[in-house]
Amino acid sequence: MLDVFGQYRAKLRTPEQAVKAVRSGDWVDYSTNVCFPTLLDAALADRRDELTDVKIRGNLCFGPIRAVECDPTREHFHYNSWHCSAYERRLCDRGLCNYIPMIFRNVVPYYRHFLTVNVAMMCVAPMDKHGFFNLSCGAGIAKGILDKADIVILEVNEHLPHILGGFDESIHISEVDFVVEGEHPPLPEFPIDPPTEEDIRIADHILPYICDGATIQLGIGSMPNVVGQRLTESDLRDLGMHTELCGDAYYELHRAGKLTNRRKTAQPGKGVTGIVFGSRTLYDWVDRNPGVVVEPLEYVNCAEVIAQQENMVSINNCIAVDLYGQVSSESSGFRHISGTGGSLDYLTGAAMSKGGKAFVCMTSTYTDKKGVRHSRVVPYFQGDIITNPRSQGYFIVTEYGVVNLAGRSTWERADLLISIAHPDFREELIAAAQEQKIWRQSNKR
User: Which of 80, 142, 300, 359 has the smallest count of CB within 10 Å of its CB?
Assistant: First the structure.
């Protein structure tokens, strides 16, 4: 029998010893969300003056990232994110983070085929008696990164839940170069924000399109969570979970007796996810729960896999939509906000599903820092990054209603989108549509 605990002891290092593996010019990976390696990051930051041009990748890291904060000139550490959290967005605003364009299902294949990882370091749950470390809340992309790394450093976080998996949810001590231990603060928590009146109206527009036994994907952000909350108060039954992100809305659906996964057409009885973050209650719910499994995002977000679920319903946020039906979910002009994530994955997969539907949600307006109100339905984009192309336009939702763009011509799209824009902006949008030659004069107002 393998002496896994002997191997563990032999590979145990302090954070300061472990980060000596990093050399100038290296590519270092930090993984995602609450699996961010706080002790190793602090130790690497302490080596700032010894290193130059160390490139770091992460995503949905909630900060602080000390290797970034200690080097405002980016001479020593250069940070890059696959998907920006609010903290990473502020780093982008300060010129301290660069976004890596992607679709989430492709992240691990990018590593496998194109990218270099000199050192991978990430937090994991404590090793079990068989020598396996559970990759926990970051399992959706973690194993693929670790497999590509020249050197693997694991930081054991005593607070991480152990999440059961279909595959690639763990790594064996024999595959690891160094292990680091130390005390960690409680995991960051992200409870659901109280909904606004507009949020509730948007959610209530979507509910009639959802049937008993539907499988639900709720994207990152407050609006999808509000839909989840409204579902707990509905008469719907036997809902399923297939999602890149498992947040508190799914626990609330489970607690309300709505989430059973019984009628899923693929992996029935199992709620499937790729990453997890939320409240302490959520972490306790997913811990060793046979009803929740974590699997790689290249599988979870694969459109063909998503489409196996009949009545698949995808619900995601966006920032703005133009009159052609193009959707921007990741930038406001040239200012980076978040990332593509799985929005396009689930739009595609849900549209392919028998009985499936894909919803993209937004409030009709927003107010900028100067107190000026703007429409989220715009004539056309000017530098905003397009997340979903117009050729994949489907259901768009605001507090003023739901429209379906599938198969619609340019003038029909303009008419439909203006109908769910804020009334204060509709006349100027009509004028813009006329100028852009996508307005039919017989359209009724």
Answer: 80
